[in-house]
């Protein structure tokens, strides 16, 4: 998964997640991002910076 700066659209980095990532949802307070990986039947949990 690529990480972008939303002000400049520049790619800041990359985070490894499971196979075939599809859908995202944020947790309460927006601190975590949950990403479903349909190819590996798993969920990746990313901590978001504020």
UniProtKB/TrEMBL annotation:
Lineage, opening ranks: Bacteria, Bacillati, Actinomycetota, Actinomycetes, Streptosporangiales
UniProt name for this protein: Uncharacterized protein
Recorded superkingdom: Bacteria
Source species: Spongiactinospora gelatinilytica
């Amino acid at each position: 998964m690529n990480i972008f700066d939303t002000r400049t659209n520049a790619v800041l980095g990359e985070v490894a997640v499971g196979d075939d990532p599809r859908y995202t949802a944020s947790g309460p307070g927006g601190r975590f991002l949950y990403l479903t990986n349909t190819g590996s039947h798993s969920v990746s949990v990313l901590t978001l910076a504020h």
